[in-house]
Structures are given as C-alpha cells and as structure tokens.
Design a protein that fits this description.
With 565 residues, this protein is mainly α. 68% of the residues lie in helices and 2% in strands.
C-alpha cells in the first residue's frame, strides 16, 4: 500500500486498504504520504490534498464505529510495529487535524493531561485549584466537605480483589475522597497538567531573576545573580536535551521549542563572551554581551505565552500570532528587494547633497535620523524626519520618495495586512480544530517531562545517574521479547473496517440509485414533454387543415372563360 501511495495509485491504495489489518493506522500512513508529496509537488498539491483528506475520512469513519470509548482508546493507543507509532501520534504527524479533533482523540488527550497510571484529576478542575494544591499539598489529604471538593484521587489497582473493593467502598464511599498515603503527593506532581504549572511557576521566578540582572549595571566581574542564572540555564539546557532525545522527530514542531533553542543558544553565547570580558579589559566584548541580552530577555518573556495555549479562547489567538509571524517573514523576504533598490537610490542622493555641501560627507553611511542609512525602512513605517532637506538637493529626490511611498505604504503595507487578515480568517474559521490539534504537542511535551522543573531537575538527573551507575554492577537481565500481536484486537479492527467498507458501498449504491432515479424521472419528463409537444403539433396540424378548408369555402371560385364563337 505504501508503494501504491508513493506511485500515486489512489484506487489501488483503496483496494489494498479494504484488506488492511490496521485500517486506522494504514489510512493515516497514506494520508501522511500524500501530504508530504504535496509539499514537493505544488502543481498536483490540490489533488494530493484531496486524496489525503479522503483517507483521513476513512480513518475517522472506522473510529466512529467503535461502540465504546474504551475500545476506541485501545485502537488509538495501539502502536503498529510497522511504523512504531500509535494512531493518535500518526494523525499528528500526518497533520490530520479533523482526525485529532475527533471526540475520542480529545478524550484520550484529556485523560493523558489530567491523569496517569496512578492518580487522576477531574477534567474540569479549575487551574487555580491546581496551583493552590501545588503550593499546599496537604490539601490532597483533606476529604470533600461542603463546597470544597477534592479533585484528586488515586486509581484502584486493576488486580484488586472484588471483596477488598467492596470493603473499600464502605470505607471510602465518597469517590472524591483520595486515599491517604505518603506517595500521594509524589503521584500528584507526576500529572502532566501539574508539571505544566510547576514549570511555569519556576519559569516566572527565572524571569524575575533575569529582570533583576537587567535592572543592575553589568560590571567587569561576573556577579552572583549571573552565576545563579548560569546554573539555571544549564538545567534548562539539560531539560531541552532530554526532551529532544525523547522525541527527536517531533521535538521542533512546536514553535515554543524552537524559541527555547534560540534562547539557549543566545545564553550560551552570552556566557562565553561574559567569561572572556571578565578575563580582559575590553569593554567592547561587555557591550556585545549586553546587545545579546536585550533581545534574549524579550524572547524569554514571549516564551511564557505557552501557558495560554491551554485555554480554549486564548489558544487560537496564540496560534494566529505565530502564523502571522511567518507571514511577516515571507513578506519581508519580498520587501527586501524594494528596500535594497530604493535605499541605494537614497544613498546616491545623499552623496550628491554632500557634493554640493548640503550634507556631511559620511551622511550616506550614518544611520537614520542623523544620516540616510536605513531611511527606506523608516519611510516604510511613516517616519521621515528631516530627510526632505537632503532629497530636495536632487531633481529626482522627492519624486523617488513619492514613488517609494506609493509602492511601500499603499501597495506593500496593504499586501501585508491582507496576508495577516487571511491567516486570521483561516484560524478563526477553524479555531476549534486548530486548538484541539495543538493540544497534542502540549500534552505530549509534559507527559514526557521530568518530575521536577529546572533547576531542580539537576537533582533528579543526579539520582538517575546513580541508579544507572548501580545497574552496571548488576547482572544484565534478558530483554523481554516483544509482545505478540493481539489477535482479538486485529480481528475487531478488521470487522470495523469491513463494516465501514460495507456502509460506504451501501452509501455509494444508494447514491447511484438516487442518481438513476433522478435520471429516470428526467427521462419520463422528457418523454411526457415530447408526447405533449406531439399532441400540440397534431392539434395545430388539424386546426391548420380546417382553416385551409374554411378559406377554400370563403374564397370564390375564379370565373370560367366564355366559349369562343
């Protein structure tokens, strides 16, 4: 089937898919192949995208046929050995946004975000309550009473005896009452939603310390706050490396991870230059450190916007911002040609003014507003300053600026506005799908994150290193063989696929029958119209004959000629 998809044999793919043992995984693989090929073949992109959407519909159709959520959850979580990924993971890789937005997929994400194998939170638990329980973990042991409802509870073991469960039901009649235990707090902090907030709260402390560093002058020697931030950044770097090793394929898909990488690279460069400046008396290196720190602080604050992605209303706005940034980058790649052409023209005009003594000799290479270097950019956003005093020295100076303003402020600015408006409309019309699709990346990131946030993850790393060192001296255990394929699961998936295929065939047959019925009705109407037309023609013919007869009666016969004598 993969070969058929690569060869563009869609009908052959459909025929093979009707016999595939894993219909959801297979359909998503074909959809992934078609969407990937569409990126490299723009001429056939529309047709390939339609074929990809068709197989995405196949996957959604089979998913709809699951009778219960538990069975659908098993189908979504099952990892096919051929691709080494689950159906939900494959749907994200294939950019199947409608599939990931399916109610079963979203319910799986809710369970992964608010629960794990040990404990769970109610899906609609307010985030303010989660933050309160992070700061005051003793609330986990308080039973529900009055308006207060404890949202956290531990899961019961699957192998729990029925008699024990009945006894526990007597003791813990309230389902919201968590069972006591020392590890309850630890289990609570392992939840992905709790990891999100612990990382966010620690990152806010990091931003406060970074702002403290920026509020004080950077001296020759490295300060204490810089050392503390250096340790913190090292912890962030370690955390980023572990996240990359956990999922190297999809790690850089979220924009937040790309921003994290840029921030860490900037901080590494900052501390390298800072160490060099501390060991020398060159102030230019220190100034370069400040220049690196300025945009890095801005990026660090922008990184905090990720916490808004969990909100249904603010999440789509965040997606709009990042996609509009891509529009701006594409626009300025086009604007660069206009900028270069007119900027060189302004430089030539400035040199002519300097030749006549109306401007300084170095004005053409002095930055705006003291010179004309960069004037094309500032004029694009409406800032001119005293540039017309220089432009008037050339016969074409004002005309060149007027022509540039027509192209820049009227044409190009409206083009940029139209591009961003189109992106806004696209995200707004599909805000539900866009937000639900982006949730997977957020849930997956914190599901695989460390138990504690940076910089405390260095302690966790040291503990894991000691455990790994201790395991070296132990006897190596034989690797467990891979679990065999679940024949019952494969059989149930095949039955669902067969049911879906039969349903689709029945729909196609009904569609054909409806079309044939409509054609027969149209044919009957045509025959009836022809019969009526024929009757009208016969009636008109009879009426014409009668009219001719009447005219013959009314018209007198011509006189006969007299016989000759």
């Amino acid at each position: 089937m993969i070969w058929a998809a690569l060869a563009g044999r869609t009908q052959l793919c459909e025929a093979i898919w009707e016999t595939a043992p894993y219909p959801i995984h297979s359909a998503l693989v074909v959809s992934y192949i078609y969407r990937t090929i569409a990126d490299f073949l723009p001429d056939s992109a529309a047709e390939l995208q339609d074929d990809a959407s068709k197989f995405e519909d196949y996957a959604m159709g089979v998913l709809d046929l699951f009778p219960t959520f538990q069975k659908a959850k098993k189908g979504l979580a099952y990892e096919w050995s051929v691709i080494g990924a689950s159906a939900l993971r494959m749907g994200v890789s294939a950019s199947c946004k409608r599939f990931v937005s399916h109610r079963y997929c979203q319910k799986v994400l809710d369970q992964q975000f608010f629960s794990d194998d040990v404990g769970k939170l109610r899906a609609k638990t307010p985030h303010s309550m989660i933050i309160l329980m992070i700061f005051f973990p003793f609330l986990l042991f308080i039973p529900s009473f009055g308006p207060f409802t404890n949202p956290y509870q531990l899961r019961k073991p699957k192998n729990q005896d029925s008699k024990e469960s009945e006894g526990n039901d007597h003791k813990n009649s309230d389902p919201n009452t968590p069972p006591p235990g020392f590890f309850t707090v630890l289990n609570f902090y392992e939840l992905p939603v709790v990891k999100l907030w612990t990382n966010t709260l620690c990152y806010i402390i990091f931003l406060i310390m970074l702002s403290w560093l920026a509020s004080e002058p950077i001296e020759h020697d490295i300060s204490t706050i810089e050392m503390v931030l250096g340790v913190w950044i090292s912890a962030l770097l370690v955390d980023e490396i572990f996240q990359f090793l956990e999922d190297p394929v999809q790690h850089f898909e979220p924009t937040s991870n790309k921003l994290d990488f840029s921030i860490l690279v900037a901080f590494i460069l900052y501390y390298i230059l800072r160490a060099i400046s501390a060991s020398s008396d060159d102030r230019s290196i220190r100034d370069s450190c400040v220049d690196i720190l300025i945009p890095t602080i801005v990026c660090c604050y922008l990184r905090l916007m990720q916490v808004f992605s969990i909100n249904y209303y603010l999440g789509p706005l965040l997606i709009m911002i990042f996609k509009m940034l891509k529009d701006i980058i594409r626009f300025f790649s086009l604007f660069l040609l206009f900028f270069a052409g007119f900027q060189i023209s302004f430089i030539l005009i400035t040199q002519q003014a300097a030749y006549h003594g109306e401007a300084e000799d170095d004005a053409w290479k002095t930055g705006y507003p003291d010179g004309t270097m960069g004037l094309a950019y500032w004029a694009f956003i409406g800032e001119f300053g005293d540039s017309f005093d220089v432009l008037n020295q050339s016969d074409l100076g004002v005309i060149t600026m007027a022509f540039y303003l027509i192209l820049g402020q009227i044409l190009l600015q409206n083009l940029l506005i139209a591009m961003m408006a189109d992106t806004y409309s696209e995200i707004r019309d599909n805000s539900d799908e866009e937000w639900k699709f982006s949730r997977y990346l957020l849930v997956h990131e914190y599901k695989t994150a460390n138990l504690v946030p940076p910089p405390l993850n260095l302690i966790e790393l040291a503990i894991h290193a000691c455990q790994a060192l201790g395991s070296v001296f132990k006897e190596e255990e034989e690797e467990a063989p891979p679990p065999p394929e679940d024949e019952d699961f494969v059989k149930s998936m095949s039955e669902l696929r067969s049911a879906f295929v039969e349903e689709e065939k029945k729909k196609d047959q009904d569609k054909v029958e409806n079309q044939v019925k409509k054609l027969n009705e149209q044919l009957d109407w045509i025959i009836q119209d022809r019969a009526e037309d024929k009757e009208h023609l016969v009636t008109i013919q009879d009426a014409t004959t009668e009219l001719v007869k009447m005219m013959k009666i009314l018209v007198p016969a011509p006189p006969t000629a007299a016989p000759a004598k």
